[in-house]
Specification:
Length: 301
C-alpha cells in the first residue's frame, strides 16, 4: 500500500489526465485543418467494405469539431474547480466527504430535535406512538430491511422480528443493545464431537423430537445422550437455549437455518456463523432508540 500513497502518484495522475485532455484537442485540430480545394476529390483511407463502400479521409464538419472543443474546455474548467488532478483539491475546495458532512449537518439541524424528543421518552411509550413508529419504520427500511426484509419477517439465516422468538432477548433494553453493539453468533462444527455422520444423524433426530417434528425414535434415543454430553452446555439439558449467548431454543419449532433433518445435520456438521453488525458508528443514539422501539413493537402488534 505504501507505493500508492507516495508523492509520485499525485503528479503522475495529473500529468496523464492533462495530457489526455490536451491530446484530444491536438488530435481534433490535426483532423480539422486540411480543407479540400474547389473541385478536389477527397482521398480514401483504403478501407473498403461490401465491394464499393469506401471510407473517405474528409475533415470533420466545423460545427461538430466545435462541439468537441467545447468538451475539452469544459473538462479543463472542471479539473480546475474540482479535484481530479492527483493531490490538487481544486479551486472550489470541494470533496465528497465535505458535501456529505455538510448535508448531514443540515439534516441534524432539521431533524435532530425531533429524534431527541423521543430519546427522552421510555422506549415502550415510543413504540406505542404512531408518529414514532412511522419514523422507526423508515429507519428500518433504510438500515435493516436488506437482511430482515421490508416486512421484518427475515429469511434463512436472518431472524424473523415479528414472531416474539428472540435469540438474545426481546425486552426493550436488550433490543437496543443488539442494535447498538451488534451480535456475533457462532456454533462450531460438532461432527467430531458427536461421533461422525451417524452421530450427527442421531442428534438431529433427537433435536427434531424436542419440537415434536417427525423423527426416527430409535435414532433420537441414541442421540439424546450425545446431546446431553455435547450440546446441552449451550442449548441447555432441556434444549430451551440460552439467550445470554444467543443459543437458540430447539423446542419451539422456530428455525433460523431450516428445521429439516438435512438442515439440522448440516448445522451440526459444518456449524453456523451469524453476524449482526453494530450500528453505533452509523446511527445516533436517538435514531437507535426509535429503531429499537419500532422493532420492539413489531412483535406486539
Amino acid at each position: 500500500m505504501a507505493d500508492f500513497i507516495s508523492g509520485f502518484w499525485g503528479p503522475y495522475i495529473a500529468v496523464i489526465t492533462l495530457a489526455s485532455v490536451i491530446g484530444c484537442a491536438v488530435f481534433l485540430k490535426a483532423m480539422s485543418i486540411r480543407r479540400l480545394a474547389p473541385g478536389e476529390k477527397a482521398a480514401t483511407t483504403g478501407h473498403v467494405w461490401d465491394e464499393d463502400l469506401a471510407e473517405y479521409n474528409n475533415p470533420l464538419p466545423r460545427w461538430w469539431a466545435w462541439l468537441f472543443y467545447l468538451t475539452v474546455i469544459f473538462a479543463l474548467g472542471y479539473l480546475a474547480y474540482y479535484p481530479g488532478l492527483g493531490v490538487f483539491n481544486g479551486m472550489g475546495n470541494w470533496s465528497s466527504r465535505g458535501q456529505y458532512e455538510e448535508e448531514m449537518a443540515r439534516a441534524e439541524a432539521t431533524y435532530g430535535p425531533i429524534f431527541n424528543k423521543y430519546l427522552q421518552e421510555d422506549l415502550k411509550a415510543v413504540a406505542a406512538d404512531p408518529e414514532a413508529r412511522q419514523m422507526g419504520q423508515r429507519l428500518f427500511l433504510t438500515y435493516c430491511s436488506q437482511c430482515h426484509g421490508s416486512d421484518a419477517r427475515g429469511a434463512r439465516g436472518f431472524p424473523d422480528l415479528t414472531d416474539n422468538d428472540w435469540l438474545y432477548g426481546g425486552d426493550p433494553q436488550t433490543i437496543k443493545t443488539t442494535i447498538t453493539e451488534g451480535r456475533n453468533g457462532v456454533m462450531p462444527p460438532m461432527i467430531a464431537a458427536v461421533g461422525g455422520e451417524q452421530g450427527a444423524k442421531e442428534v438431529a433426530n433427537y433435536v427434531l423430537s424436542l419440537s415434536g417434528r417427525p423423527h426416527d425414535a430409535t435414532l433420537a434415543a441414541a442421540g439424546k445422550e450425545k446431546f446431553t454430553t455435547v450440546c446441552a452446555a449451550c442449548h441447555g439439558p432441556d434444549g430451551k437455549g440460552n439467550q445470554a449467548i444467543g443459543a437458540p431454543n430447539l423446542t419451539d419449532n422456530v428455525w433460523l437455518y431450516g428445521g429439516s433433518e438435512a438442515a439440522i445435520i448440516e448445522t451440526i456438521t459444518k456449524g453456523r456463523s451469524g453476524l449482526m453488525p453494530a450500528q453505533k458508528d452509523k446511527l445516533s443514539e436517538a435514531k437507535i432508540h426509535l429503531l429499537a422501539a419500532y422493532v420492539y413493537g413489531l412483535s406486539k402488534h
